[in-house]
């Protein structure tokens, strides 16, 4: 699954990778958590755009927005059939920029957090879905991350992992047919990912800053400001 991730890459580098037209002033995010706003890349009639959406997809038919907290991930095997995600999979796919994500493993009676990176720390895209929910004058745009079976390297941490798209597959995910998109929902090869234990500071979803990605064996960094 995917319950936390980071996106700290400079905006100019993200723009080159994802080829969107606008250039918003993005602050680095070291500990993105569900229900928080985060950047996604969508296809529009004028080209790709980067927008801030809330993590946790709220289906258009939902009576209230609370369902979003339970829809942060969409399983690849049922994404085209499950009512919460099937319409978004058909017509509203997106790229979710990231440069690392976190997983926890029980060790010595405590849960140890690990950070997973791709190609040594390069930015990448999760396969995502987005939706627009409207009720009583309120509009919320939200997203979910598609997950699949973990590759051999990550099985040691969890049995599932987010779908990570190769750059050459970005256009097909955004604009291809549902069948073409479904074919992309596979684990990233094991040789492309590495992981390392990080400071338990990341355990608190309110915590931000580089300490969230600091190796567990490194000396503690100064406490970072917390999100309110």
How does this model look, in words?
It is a single chain. By secondary structure, the chain is mostly beta strands. The chain has one domain (5-100, 122-189): SOS response associated peptidase-like (hypothetical protein yedk fold). Helix content is 11%, strand content 37%. It contains four helices and 13 strands. It has helices at 11-18, 86-91, 170-175, 178-182; strands at residues 5-7, 29-32, 37-44, 47-55, 73-75, 93-98, 100-107, 110-118, 124-135, 138-149, 160-162, 164-165, 193-197. The strands form two sheets. Strands 3, 4, 5, 6, 9, 10, 11 and 12 form an eight-stranded mixed beta sheet that branches. The protein has a five-stranded antiparallel beta sheet with strand order 2-1-7-8-13, with no helix packed on it. The radius of gyration is 17 Å and the shape is globular. The model is unreliable at 218-228 (pLDDT under 50).
Quick summary:
The protein has 228 residues and is mainly beta. The protein is built from four helices and 13 strands.
Index terms:
disordered C terminus; hypothetical protein yedk fold; single chain; 4 helices; 228 residues; 8-stranded mixed beta sheet; mainly beta; 5-stranded antiparallel beta sheet
Secondary structure: elements and pairs:
Elements: E1 5-7, H1 11-18, E2 29-32, E3 37-44, E4 47-55, E5 73-75, H2 86-91, E6 93-98, E7 100-107, E8 110-118, E9 124-135, E10 138-149, E11 160-162, E12 164-165, H3 170-175, H4 178-182, E13 193-197
Parallel strand pairs: 4-10, 5-10
Antiparallel strand pairs: 1-2, 1-7, 3-4, 6-9, 7-8, 8-13, 9-10, 9-12, 10-11
């Amino acid at each position: 699954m995917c319950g936390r991730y980071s996106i700290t890459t400079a905006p100019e580098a993200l723009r080159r990778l994802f080829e969107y037209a606008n250039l918003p002033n993005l602050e680095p995010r070291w500990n993105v958590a569900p229900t928080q706003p985060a950047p996604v890349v969508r296809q529009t009639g004028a080209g790709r755009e980067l927008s801030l959406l809330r993590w946790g997809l709220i289906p258009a038919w939902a009576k209230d927005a609370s369902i979003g907290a339970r829809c942060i991930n969409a399983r690849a095997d049922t994404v085209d059939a499950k009512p919460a995600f099937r319409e978004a999979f058909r017509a509203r796919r997106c790229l979710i920029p990231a440069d690392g994500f976190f997983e926890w493993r029980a060790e010595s009676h405590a849960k140890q957090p690990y950070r997973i990176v791709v190609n040594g720390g390069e930015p990448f895209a999760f396969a995502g879905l987005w939706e627009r929910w409207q009720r009583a004058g309120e509009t919320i745009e939200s997203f979910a991350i598609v997950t699949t079976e973990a590759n051999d390297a990550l099985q040691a941490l969890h049995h599932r992992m987010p779908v990570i798209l190769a750059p050459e597959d970005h256009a097909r995910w955004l604009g291809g047919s549902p069948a073409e998109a479904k074919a992309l929902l596979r684990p990233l090869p094991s040789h492309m990912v590495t992981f390392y234990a990080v400071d338990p500071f990341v355990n608190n979803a309110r915590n931000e800053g580089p300490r969230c990605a600091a190796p567990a064996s490194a000396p503690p960094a100064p406490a970072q400001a917390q999100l309110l």
